Amino acid sequence: MKAIIAEKPSVAREIAQLLNVKEQKNGYLTGNGYCITWALGHLVSLAMPEDYSIPSFHRESLPLIPHPFQLTRKKIKKGKSYPPDPMAAKQLKIIKEVFEKCSSIIVATDAGREGELIFRYIYDYLKCKKPFERLWISSLTEKAIAAGFQKLKPGKDFDGLYSAGKARNEADWLVGINASQALTILAGNGLYSLGRVQTPTLALICKRFREHQNFIAKRYWQIQLKHRKSFIDFKSDSSDHWEDKKSAEQIFKSIEREGKAEVVDVQKKTISESAPLLFGLTALQKEANRKFSFSADETLQIAQSLYEKKFITYPRTGSRYIPEDVWLEVPELVRCLRNHEKFKKASSMLHFGNFNKKIVNDAKVTDHHGLLITGKIPSSLSAQENAVYDLIAFNLLETLSNDCIKEQHCIILKVHHYEFHSKAIKIQQRGWRSVKGILSPEANDNTEEILFEFPDVKTGDDLKISHLEIQEKSTQPAKLFTEADVLSAMEHARKHIDNEEQQKVIQNFGIGTPATRASIIETLLKRDYIQRQKKKIIPTQKGLHIYELVKDKKIANVEMTAEWEMALYEIERGQMDAEHFLNNIKEYTSQITAELLSLLIPKEEVPKLTCPKCRSHELIINDKVFKCPDEKCLWIQFRRICGIQLSVNDISLLIEKGRTALIKNMISKAGKTFEAFIVLGSDLTTRFEFPKKKDLDKIP
Asked: 82 an active-site residue?
C-alpha cells in the first residue's frame, strides 16, 4: 500500500476521486491500494528558545544559535503562553499511523519551497525512513493530476528545494529572534519585532515616507502655445522653465508680440510596444492593487481559491513564461475563452497559427510556469474571484496578441531663441491593446498627445500662435507607496542600491519571494509598523521609531537581503552549500545582535497616572495599551486610535484633564483624514469631540 500526503483535505479528496479511493477514515481516506492523508499546513515548525531551556529576553543569552535546530509540533497562542495545538497533534498521530502501514509515500503537498518544507519537517519529526516520490503539478484539474501520477519524480530530485526552504526558515529564526529580543531588551518597554525581510521592507517604506515628508516644493512657470495646421489643433510647451514669474511674463509678452513660431525640426519614428508577459504572482498582485485596491494578501487568497477550484494554474509562481510542452495547450485555452461571452470579442481577434510566442522560454521557467487559466471555465464566482480571473484571462489574450505599433512625431519650434516642443502619437496597429479595447494610462508618459492625424508640417514652416498661456507648476515629491509600489520595491531591490556593481550582481533578485511578499506586508501591518491610508502605505509612529533606530544598521540593509535570496536560489539548484550560507547567517546574527545592543535609546518618561475607574492603582503604560493592573478593575484603553498612536502627553491629558490636545491626521473607516479631541466620558469610554472654530483659532 502507498501513502499519499496532500497539504489540505480538499486536495486529498480531489486525488482520492481520481484514484477511486472511497473509504473515509478519521483523518485519511483509503482504498484501491492507497491511504491518502493531509497536513493542514505547517504541523511542525522550528522550536522556540524556551524549548531549548534558554531564558528569553536576557542580554547574556544573546545571540541564540541552536545547534542543531530542533523541530516541534505546531503551537497556538493562549494568553502569554504557546501550548501545543491539539488539532496538529491529532493529525500528526494519524499521519504517523498512515506512514507506518504503507511501504512508500507520494508527496502531494504544494509544488514549491513551502510545500516541500511542510512534508520534510513532518517526515523528519516522525523519524520516518520510508522511500518517497514527488507529485509535481501546476494545476489541480483531473487531467493535470492524472498526468502527474504518470510521471512521479524521485524524492531526492527535490533535496535542493528542501535545503533552500530549510535554510531560509533557519535564517529567519536566527535573525528574527535575536534582533527582536536585542531591541526589546534595549527599549525596556513593550515588544519589538525585527526580521531578515520585514525590516529592510519597513526601511524602504519609511525612507520613501521621509523623502515625501521632507520635500520642499519649488514653483516654476512654463509657457504653452496652441497652434492649428491643416485643421488639426495641437500644443507645444517651452523647453525651459522659469523660477521667477516676472521673467516668464516678460518672455510671454515678447512671444505674444511675435505671434508665430518657426518649425526647426520634425522627427518621426515608429515605436513597437511589446505585448506583456504572463502574470507571475507579484505582477498579478500589483495589477489587482492598481485596478481594484486589493491587498497583496487578498489577491493571493483569491488566486489560491481559484487554483483549488481548478480554474487557474499554480499561483505562487515567480515565472512569467511557459515551456514548449505547455504552449501546445494554449490554443485549447483560447477556444474555451471564445465560448465565454465576456471574452468572445477579444479572443476572436486572435488568429490560430499566428499567436505571439514570446512567452515561450524553457530557460526562464522556474518551479512553475506563468499564470494560466485552465480549460475549466467558471460559471459562479464571487465578485472578487471574477475580477482576478478576468485579469488572468485577459492577460493571456494580451500576451498572444501582436505588438502595439505607434507612430511618434516630435516637432521642435522656436520663437526668437526660445525653444518649444510638441510630442504626439498615433496608433497604427492596436495589437494587444485592443484586447480590452482601451489605451491604458501606462500607454504613454502623459507628455504626448494622442492624435488621429498629425499636422502636416515641415522644417522652415511658420506656425501662427492661436493662443498662449503661462502655466504655474511646482516640483513634485516622490509619491507615497501604494501596496503595488511596495511589491515593486521588494521585487526590484537593485533600484534602491547605489553601488552599480552590486546592482548587476542581484539584478534578478529582490526582497522575499513572490510567495512570501504578501505575508511580509501583512506582518508589518499586524505589528503596527505600517498602516493603510486610503490607497497608500505609510509607516506608523512606531514604525518610524524603529526605522530611525536601525536605518544605518545591517538589519535594514536591502542589498544584503537580496543577496541572500540569490544564495537561497543557488542552494535550491545545488550551486551553493546550505551549511556555508547558514554559517554566514550565524556570523551576521552575532554582528547585528552586538550592533543593536550597543544602541543608545532614550527612555520615554512614563508618568505615574492613577486608574480613572478604581482610583487606587497606578496605570501600566506600554506601546499598545494603558490599563489598570487590578484584575477586578480591568480598565483598559488602546493607545492606537484611528491610525494615530497616543503620545505619553496625550495619555496624561486624557487621564488628568479628561481631554487630549487636538489630534490631527486620524483616519476614518471611510479612509478620510480628520482631526478631533479625544475625550474620556463619564462612563470611562473615549469619544471624539470635533473642534469648533473658536477652538481652532486658539491653536497656533
From this structure: no
